[in-house]
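#data-curation
PF: Archiving a pair of folding outputs for the training set. Convention for this channel: one message per protein, sequence first, structure tokens after, nothing in between. First:
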Amino acid sequence: MTAGTERNGVAVLPSTTVGVPRENAEGERRVALVPKAVEKLRSRGVEVVLEPGAGTGALIPDEAYTAAGARLGDPWVCDVVVTVGPPGPPEIGKLSRGATLIGFLGPATSPETMTALREAGVQAFAMESIPRISRAQAMDALSSQANVAGYKAVLAAAEHSTRFFPMLTTAAGTVKPATALVLGVGVAGLQALATAKRLGARTTGYDVRPEVADQVRSLGAQWLDLGIEAVGEGGYARELTDEERAMQQQRLEEAITGFDVVVTTANVPGRTAPTLVTAAAVEGMRPGSVVVDMAGESGGNCAASEAGRTVVRHDVTIVSPLNLPATMPEHASELYARNVSALLELMVDEHGTLAPDFSDEVLAASCVTRAEA
């Protein structure tokens, strides 16, 4: 950690050091801060230390970081370490006692990580725990990354589809546009609808939260009304009752068979993803149709999907990609870096010293472990 110095005989408080390590998870190409974010933090008196090669996956060379004011070194000894994914036990062991960690940490799904951080005396802030309130929108990493995922999911559907998305009028005749259904219209679902519409498909959205129907229609899509509502807290849907789930599956099975493309995005935080596309629904779809299951990491919305794989069942292609934002590392990293730097700016004072105020609801909600006093 940075030691205090004197300037013109006046004591100067040490600035906060923020470390940016290289992500080690398989397939992870994002980086927690980009050079523009480094410049912004430097203007606040914060020193940024980059692990050499941290930006390589996002195609950002070390030279771009040093030009922005970062220095190369060991990020794990810094006051604050910012990551994309959760660090493993070896990395947690490198953190200084009393250090602060910021990243997607899985507080609801990875209790072993929380235990390790508490035992290491680390103060941790989970990006997925940022409350979804107006003043925290700039820090909402779940939304920024869901936008990327929703966009890329539709591109995956188009790649695997045996049909054109747009209507084409040719000398050989007219080709009808593909029909696309998006199940779950949060941030990812709305982006998926918008992207499918841009590609020329006839789009329809469904969600158990009726209040999003107007958002779906505002994108030029139709609203699929199954007569089931499940409004939850924090912008999420609540878990359905057994009776509601059975009714939903029956009505969805009937509806799904009429679409060329189905994109599913439904997740309940901390729980197994609900099954929306049953095996019977897949069997009833036209040959050549595509299902893109964005919930594969939490169990999947499609009964026939296999997490991380593309399979074909009854001549229907089921794609279950993992970590879609990492497949667009440049823009995904840029958006995530804005989220992280906005949170950091809330945590440092005018001198660039780390001073989180836990009476602030954003910091109180996102802090998942506290360092020992």
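PF: Second:
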Amino acid sequence: MATYHYILASEKFLLEEEPLEEVLQERQRHYAERNQTIDFWLVRQPAFLEAPELASVKAQCPQPAAAIVSTNPQFITWLKLRLEFVLTGSFEAPTAAIADPLASLVAA
């Protein structure tokens, strides 16, 4: 089981109102310079929000939602500082209620 950390906001906010593409490209460049593996993913309408234990988080976020999910908590803190008006949290996966969030990305 892995711990995933996330920022969460409305899809419109993250993808249209914020310079997210620029921020993620900057971070990808940073990782490439240090030969680090990418450990973050953009997830539209994240399925983990359907888990009963995350119902209160889903209720706080305008829908449709989008999230940046990472295994690196420092990266999520950095994003929170850059984007400000986002929710943050973490979850364990896979569990009975939450599938591995990366499984659908590999299949896509």
